[in-house]
Amino acid sequence: MFEIFNTKVENVSETFDLNTPAGRHEYFHQKAAKEIEELKEYLEHNSFVSFWLAKKGAGKGTYSKMFSEIIGEERLAHISVGDVVRHVHASVEDEQAKKALYTYLDENYRGTLSLDEAFDALINRETKTLLPTEFILTLVKREIEQLDGQGIMMDGFPRGMDQISYSLYFREIMNLRHDPDFFVLIDVPDSVLDARVKARVVCPKCQLSRSIKFLLTKDIIYDPETDTYHLICDNPACEGCGEERLVAKEGDDLGIEGIRDRLEADDELIKYALRLRGIPKLTLRNTVPVDQAQSYVDEYEITPEFVFDHNANNEVEISTKPWVVKDSDGSDAYSLMAAPVVLSFIKQMHAQLIGDDTMGV
Ligand SMILES: [Zn+2]
Prior knowledge:
alpha/beta, three-stranded antiparallel β-sheet, P-loop_NTPase, five-stranded parallel β-sheet, Nucleoside monophosphate kinase, single chain
């Protein structure tokens, strides 16, 4: 498990609302103004390559998006291999785009498949068959060539153990060898992923997605017959707005059982990456042990969980308490909000790219 990151900052004792963009803005400004400014300045003239590894559902997208909001989207390029493949998949429909892609692949792709075979593999893509790595690298290379020197956040590469070596020499392959590169490894215990899936509810009419524990709608009702609480859809565009109960999606009651193989493969990849030498690793940890929380984090940085009660008229009363989970080692831990995890990323990235001894340069 990764080291616990201390997100407390001397002389910053205010409480920030980490659920709103304005609250987060103030939070980052108070806790990491210097690092953010220096990173922005650094990225005016430099870039980097980062490989993000996390278990499915661990919040890779949330973290990287929040980071982009702080640093400035124009300085960063988020390359999701899944999206790249989907775009290519879509562009095959368009004759001109298809032709441009064919020309590019013809000049750049190296591998055993013919272009037609590679396209077949792409078009008949099942989620379980992976495209040949050489083909993916060529598609990613094309994506990178269209960039204008932004810092690169790779999502979905390396996907498996066989792609790790490519990531180690990715800079050379992509002609980016002057850019610093590093891994970003995210650790979220299975108990957190499991609870998030189990708490998920959607509106059957409009598919509005919320969480009975972490993200509510405006109205919550108590059903005395079943002694259960229900979120009511509050999407104004929904015909069931104000009436329809949000329900669990089929299979969600099983939590992460259905994706256990995938989680284990992801975990194996992260553990392997942790052992790699010669390439820096930034480690993001979602939890803090309950008995150490006070020395490492501020109270509002801990994820709250909603709890419900009802009065004699069956009116719902909502309160919150810190969400306690089982850490990977089985001990009690708090799950952190996204913002403090991103804060730890900013500080580690700053130390990595700029260091502490260049102050005032
Ligand atoms: Zn709805």
